[in-house]
Here is the input.
Amino acid sequence: MLTCKQFLQELNDYLDPNTDPDLKRKLQSHVTECPNCFVIVDTTQKTLQVYKGVEPQTIPDDVKSRLWKALERKIAAKKQAQS
Amino acid sequence: MTYSENWMSLTPTTPVGSAFDESALVAKAKAGDAQAFSDLVNHYERKIYRLAKHITQNDEDAEDVLQETFLKAYEHLENFQGNSKFYTWIVRIAVNESLMKLRKRKSDRTVPLDEPVDTGEEMVAREIAVWEDNPEQRYGRDEMQEILNSAVQSLKPDFRTVFILRDIEELSTEETAETLGISIPAVKSRLLRARLALREKLTRQFKRKGEDVFAYL
Ligand SMILES: [Zn+2]
Here is the structure.
């Protein structure tokens, strides 16, 4: 049986769907028997979920318009250099 | 100066809901099609801005990074080989620009670089408690954003950057290692520490209240 500390070291492997099945089984048996690590796994997964659920904020209008003006200048300069 | 005409020519044409074909747009842009390039910018600007804001934690720097990223991408488009995805390529530019900003601020000493008290080095899981159901619904959008941002902000830049690239931008371990110029084991260990530190912070925020009271009933 793994210790909690050992399990914690392997937490990312446990969460990674591509982890080797043997290792996964070993880790799974710890989670099944250890309520603390069960909670840690659950709350780590939820942590990742809430971050993934965040939509990129819209860019403030003034920031956006400065970006496009800068791009426009750049493109115009490149065209001029080529002609 | 026909600013407005040029401006009009740069408005994105990709209709909402239509398929976004990155490689086709990149090929066109490389052939000199400015419209194709602006479609790419339009598609990725929000993600690049978010990335820059997360890493630099500063509005002004994030704006500079946003501009520099797309200007450099345009300038060096011919050098883009297409071995990697265009998005990964611009992320790499944006990360480098952001890290340069961080380093500059550090050397300026005008803004203290965050030195968090309780995250980073140690691998810990002290807060062991279940979360309340659906915190996303309990907090407003802005409040939730604020909670998540301040947790990320509290991480040291090294850990923060790895977390952002792996778990928010969804780069692979290899891509993250390459982008940051660090080893794969370093990416893995920083990611683990970052995830645990964030879990710790968010658990403090989202843990189910009143659990103790329950225990005595
Ligand atoms: Zn355990």
The two ends of chain B are 77 Å apart (CA to CA). Residues 34-56 of chain B form the longest helix (23 residues).
